[in-house]
C-alpha cells in the first residue's frame, strides 16, 4: 500500500487533499504569503524563507515577489538563480533547476497533469511528471514549461513559448509548441563578448 504523497512523487495517479499533502501545502502557503508580503529591505529574510520553502537551494537565489508554488519542498535550485515577477511552479512532481538560470516575468513550470478521460478526471485523480532545467538557461517571459519536460544546458527559450517536449543543449527554441530555432554558435559568443568588452571600456566605474 502507498500513500497519495508516495504515489504523487512516483508519477502515479493520486488524489490531492489527504492529511499529509494538505500539511505540506499549508506550510507552503504560509511561507509564500510571508515572502510575498515582505519588503525590499528584507532580503536576508526573503532568502531565509526560500530556504525553508524549497527542498534545496545553493548560493544567490533571488525571486521577485509575487511567487507561488504548491508545495515548495519538491523544488531544488542551483547557484545564481533569478526569477522575475509572477513566477508559478506547480511542484506535484520534483522540479530541478540548475546553475545560472534566469526566468523572465510570468514564467510557469507545471508538473501537474490530469487524465484525458473525463470520468477518471472527475473522480479528482491527477498525476505529475518531473521538470528538469539544466545550467546556463534563460527562459523568456510568459513561457510555460509542461509536465515531464527536460531543458538542456546553455539554452534560450523565447518569450511566450509553450514547451511540451524536451529541448537539447546549446539551442534557441521558441514557439507554441516550442521548437528548436537554431543552434547557439561560436559566432554568438564572439558577438556578445565583443559587446561586453565595449561595455567594460565605456562604463563609468
Description:
There is one protein chain. This protein has 205 residues and is α/β, with parallel strands linked by helices. It has a single domain, classed as UDP N-Acetylglucosamine Acyltransferase, domain 1 (3 Solenoid), CATH 2.160.10.10. It is built from five helices and 20 strands. The chain has helices spanning 4-9, 19-36, 43-53, 118-122, 186-202, and strands spanning 14-15, 56-57, 61-63, 67-69, 75-77, 81-83, 87-90, 95-97, 102-103, 108-110, 112-113, 125-128, 131-133, 138-139, 144-145, 150-151, 156-157, 162-163, 171-174, 179-183. A seven-stranded mixed beta sheet has the order 3-6-9-14-17-19-20, with no helix packed on it. Helix 2 (19-36) runs antiparallel to helix 3 (43-53).
| Structural Rg | 19 Å
| Total number of strands | 20
Report the helical percentage. 25-40%
Q: What's the total helix number?
A: 5
> Which CATH class is shown?
Mainly Beta
Q: What low-confidence regions span 5 or more consecutive residues with pLDDT below 50?
A: none
Q: What is the distance, rounded to the nearest whole angstrom, between the alpha carbons of the first and last residues?
A: 64 Å
Question: Main attributes?
Answer:
7-stranded mixed β-sheet; UDP N-Acetylglucosamine Acyltransferase, domain 1; alpha/beta; 5 helices; 5-stranded parallel β-sheet; 205 residues; globular
Fold blueprint:
Blueprint: H1 4-9, E1 14-15, H2 19-36, H3 43-53, E2 56-57, E3 61-63, E4 67-69, E5 75-77, E6 81-83, E7 87-90, E8 95-97, E9 102-103, E10 108-110, E11 112-113, H4 118-122, E12 125-128, E13 131-133, E14 138-139, E15 144-145, E16 150-151, E17 156-157, E18 162-163, E19 171-174, E20 179-183, H5 186-202
Parallel strand pairs: 2-5, 3-6, 4-7, 5-8, 6-9, 7-10, 8-13, 9-14, 10-15, 13-16, 14-17, 15-18, 17-19
Antiparallel strand pairs: 1-12, 11-12, 19-20
